[in-house]
Amino acid sequence: MKTVSVIIANHWLYSLNLSLLLLVFLDSGWTLQSRHGGGNLMINYREEEKRILDEILGKGVYDNRIRPSGTNGTDDATLIMVNLFIRSFAKIDDVKMEYSVQITFRQKWSDDRLTYKHKLGHGDMQSRIKYLTMTDAKKVWMPDTFFRNEKEGRFHNILVPNVYIRIFPDGYVLYSIRVSLTLACPMNLKLYPLDRQKCSLRVASYGWTTDDLKYQWKTDNPVQITDDLHLPRFTLEKYVSDYCNIKTNTGEYSCLTVDLTFKREFSYYLLTIYVPCCMLVIVSWVSFWLDPNAVPARVSLGVTTLLTMSTQQASINNSLPPVAYTKAIDVWTGVCIFFVFGALLEYALVNYASRSDAQRLAKRKQKKQVELDKCAFDPEHMEESHNGGSFPMYFQKPMMRGSPGPPGAMRGSGPNFANINNIHQCEIHMKPRKRKNFLQAWLNKFPSRAKKIDVLSRVIFPAIFAFFNLSYWTFYLTQEANTDGSP
After folding, report:
1. 117: CB partners within 8 A, 6+ apart
2. Are 392 and 419 in contact, with CB atoms under 8 Å apart?
3. Cα–Cα distances in Å, from 421 out to 383, 397, 414, 426, 431?
4. What's the pLDDT band for 230 if we cut at 50, 70, 90?
5. In 71-185, where does DSSP find H-type helix?
6. Residue 267 near residue 217 (C-beta atoms within 8 A)
7. What confidence tens digit (pLDDT) does each residue in 381-408 have?
8. How confident is the model at residue 15 (pLDDT cuts 50, 70, 90)?
9. This prediction's pTM
10. Residues 6+ apart with CB under 8 A from 389
């Protein structure tokens, strides 16, 4: 029985070992089959990607110093397809004439040396490995692209460098990077703040001429812009992609450009510049309603408004570059200062007229007094009075002052009444002649020339300012419409 048991145990162990060997053999077969087109089990795709990269980028296979061939493997220029995505605008600086933008810049070209489509013929590798991703741009050939109107630029390295390279099975290479740029933007500020500015972003090759390298915009959506774009004090009206090849002494270089048209938001300037200036001009007109003798009030009001207007003009000029031409805002502030200064000068004229009126009134009273004296002491009337037998003393200055004579004077003789009539005729002769002029009749309601100047200023200053506003807005809004329709 023991012998039989030993035999059965040995047979069982032999069967177990045979089963284990069979399983190991099947597992090896499955692995081999998977690697050679028999399914997708046990395939490490990351290892496959590493193997492909090592094969196509080997030291003896690929040289990143040599540019790729042209289309279809010819010796033509390498074609670089470009598109970009505008993420945000940081600022548009009028003083420095520059703008800051953050973009994602993409370039795509064909490099036949990096083709690995024939290496994906096993299993479902073609559907699983659509492209190979790299982060080291130094391992492949790169175009010498630069931004022609760049002032400053920086890459983004938080948390890792924001750059990648994708190598597709057919040999195409996609290079994408996120950069922040400060670009020059020459501005024409003649219509400021009713202006539109066209700023460009220009991409070109630094060393390769058009015989070796050409840039071309991507056919679909060459320029993309984020939906939540926000610009301070500007609105992006339109953008156009175009070409800008440039010729120098060393050859012709391929160049791409994006022309961005910005429209300045006028509401900000309306509330911070135009309305306050109008209010200051109107406040300066308040002095026309003040009494001409209120010297401290009128002078302080005129000087205060003039200084405030000058300070505002200086603040506006500090936010703009010094240019050789006149801007729309310069016309506005200049005319407003002129009106405020005119109101101050108007009071100087009123003050002079007031003093002149006082002196003229005093001379007129003196002259009238002399003429009344001459009429009262006319020799002819004095002779008639002597012939009548008496010359009453009450026909002298008391009569000229309007004081009544003695009661018996009204019952005097005829020659005395003739003297009174002569005086009355002299007074009528001294009265000014009336003219049938409406303006003159209206001005005659006001006794002094100073008051007449104030009354006229109340009408003339607002009328001229209203006419200026009509002319100003008509001209510059027409100019703005013309710039909107220009290509």
Report:
1. 126, 169, 170
2. no
3. 16, 16, 11, 9, 16
4. confident
5. 125-128
6. no
7. 555 555 554 444 444 444 444 444 444 4
8. low
9. 0.71
10. none
The answer for residues whose C-beta is within 8 angstroms of residue 130's C-beta and 6 or more apart is 168, 169
Contact 411, 430 (CB under 8 A): no
Distances (CA, A) of 300 to 70, 260, 307: 79, 49, 10
What average pLDDT does range 328-337 have in this prediction? 95
Task: Provide the pLDDT for residue 198.
Answer: 94
In 119-272 the beta strands, taken as DSSP E runs, fall at 132-134, 145-147, 150-155, 163-167, 172-184, 196-205, 213-217, 223-225, 234-243, 246-248, 251-253, 255-264
Burial class of 404 by CB neighbour count within 10 A (0 to 12, 13 to 18, 19+): exposed
Dig out the tokens for 243 from the structure: 């070409």
pLDDT for residue 414 is more than 70: no
Beta pairing, strands 172-184 & 150-155: antiparallel
Query: For residue 450, what pLDDT band results from cuts at 50, 70 and 90?
Result: confident
pLDDT of residue 486: 55
Please give the full DSSP string across 67-88, using - where no structure is assigned. Answer: PPP-GGG-SSPEEEEEEEEEEE
Note the helical H segments in 38-184: 45-56, 125-128
Of 7-21, 116-130, 452-466, the least confident: 7-21
Biggest distance spanned by C-alpha atoms of the chain = 201
